[in-house]
Amino acid sequence: MSAASQTMPDGSGSRVQQLTDHLFRHEAGKLVSILTGIFGIHRLQMAEDVVQEALMRALRTWPYYGTPDNPAAWLMQTAKHLALDLIRRESSFQSKQTKIVEFVEQRLAEGGPEAEAMFEDEIKDDRLRLMFACCHPSLPQEAQTALALKVLCGFSPKEISAAFLTTEAAVAKRLTRARQRLQEKNVAFEIPAGVELPARLEGVLQILYLLFNEGYKASSGDCLIREELCLEAVRLGTLLAGHSAGNQPRTHALLALMLLNGARLPARLDDQGNIRRLEEQDRSLWNQAMIQRGIMHLGLSAQGDHACEYHLQAGISACHSLAPDAASTDWRQILRLYDHLVQMNDSPVIALNRAVALSRVEGPSKALNAVESILDSQPLDSYHLFHAVLGELEAQRQQFQSAAAHLRTALKLAEMASERTLLSRRLEEMESLSSD
Amino acid sequence: MNSPKISTPEYMVLFRSTGWQENLSPEEMQGIMSRTLSWFEKLSQEGKMKAAQPLFEEGKIISGKKGRTVADGPFAESKETIGGYLLLTVDTMDEAVAIAQEWPLLDCGCTVEVRPVAPECPSFKQIAEEQLALSAA
């Protein structure tokens, strides 16, 4: 931070117009989608470069002239001119140059409100086309997430690497390969339709879910970027749910799940950056607007007779979101939802979470039995939360020594400072209780 | 500092970019943009900014003692380009330097050059002074 920004005089009557948060990042995602529609998915990199250059021009000139009245339109026009320059210069475009130029003029035209409304729909279509391309099954999943973050959300390789705990070079490589793959496989820039749509939509939902979880799980990494990931997944999910191709019960279910969980993000850490458990969170910090939207989408997800995992997880999250305080949580309902969930997904982590719900309904001993009977619990051994849960269950049974032993193991496995602080605090409590 | 004394000292601040843009993310660009805008705004409100303009990237470099060569530049020659200038009206070099140190793009590895602006052409100035002396006489 420069000193200047701290001593900035009040901006009344100034040419310093406060830009919307993340405007550049969000516009970058939109513009790459539009330009990919023009250049073709095989020239994705070119679209990204043009957008980067348009943003650079803003950075080079706005400080001198002030922000334009409509920053998004300025960026769009600049990108348009850059694209046209490129098309006129590139010999590979020559055969169909006139057609493309016409197309660009038409797609990026300045028009009245009517044209703008039409144009907004066209942008949404382009964004969805790019979303389906990024989540194409021919790409490895990690490439899909990286590509979506780069081209749809406007994150840089460095920012993506911070979120995924890998190196910038690794992300750059992943992106290059992904772009090549799209080209080799001749992936179409289109919204799938007909029989192809359900499976492709499932793929997109999975990627959004992954993005959200990557941001939500507080295991490690850059906190700010992780929160951004969650919000981006919500943005893309909203776009998808609002489009006829994506307007499906499971899309609404996923969106509800992300909104309801995302609403709790502001309460998850205390001032020192330590994790607060759900029952310790200040519920007045929960984002009520997000909760309301979440509940609305949960309602929309209830059409049809099929409940998917997203439905159940959203339902569980809704139980927490709607409880005015921890004590009034409807654990019976949560347990019922977990009972369904474990039937659909045999992940030991879900079974572990079900055990926590069981402890609230039927007590810690039953829950411990349930944990012991988790099949395939071996992967849990190295999972710090597994030992933390065992510790909490033993604590509820007043078995403080055993609780302390489990918490010690959890502490050995936990990597994130904020989680370690929480575990150490609990361990101290257990140690003092067991010595009484 | 041996620059000639002039009635209103002026300092030219030249912003030099060094290929920093390749690695900036849109989010970072927006942050730097807002900070730079505020920085200019503050200087303008304090009345220290006489002029400021960005320079277009596309330019030509002309050289050659015999037969002029015109090349696209400046980037063909070097990655370092002057992206714009700022003309400061402050009393001392120290003050100009202190202002230049606050340029947000320094954080991105760019450099900034501060140069005292020489007074107007001395011969013109001399004529002007002589005329003034004559009219006073």
Could you provide a short overview of the structure?
The complex is a heterodimer of chains A (436) and B (137). Chain A has 436 residues and is an all-alpha fold.
Keywords:
heterodimer, A: 436 residues, mainly alpha, 20 helices, disordered N terminus, B: 137 residues, alpha+beta, 4-stranded antiparallel beta sheet, two-stranded antiparallel sheet, flat
Could you characterize what this model shows?
The complex is a heterodimer of chains A (436) and B (137). Chain A has 436 residues and is mostly helical. Helices cover 68% and strands 0% of the residues of chain A. Chain A has 20 helices and no strands. In chain A, helix 11 runs antiparallel to helix 12. The longest helix of chain A is centred in the first third of the chain and has 22 residues. Chain A is elongated, with a radius of gyration of 25 Å. The N terminus of chain A is likely disordered. With 137 residues, chain B is of the alpha+beta class. Chain B has three helices and six strands; from the N terminus they run E-H-E-E-E-E-H-E-H. In chain B, strand 3 and strand 4 form a beta hairpin. The model of chain B has no long low-confidence stretch (mean pLDDT 84). Classes of the chains: A mainly alpha (436), B alpha+beta (137). Chains A and B meet through helix 1, helix 2 and helix 3 of A and helix 1 and strand 2 of B.
Q: What general outline of chain B do the C-alpha atoms trace?
A: flat
Q: What's the N-to-C terminus distance of chain A?
A: 52 Å
- Oligomer designation: heterodimer
- Mean pLDDT of chain B, as a whole number? 84
Task: Note the total helix count of chain A.
Answer: 20
Based on CA atoms alone, the radius of gyration of chain B comes out at 19 Å
How far apart the termini of chain B lie comes to 35 Å
Unreliable spans of chain A: 1-13
Major sheet characteristics of chain B = 4 strands, antiparallel
Largest sheet composition of chain A: none
Number of helices of chain B: 3
The largest sheet of chain B has its strands arranged as 2-5-1-6
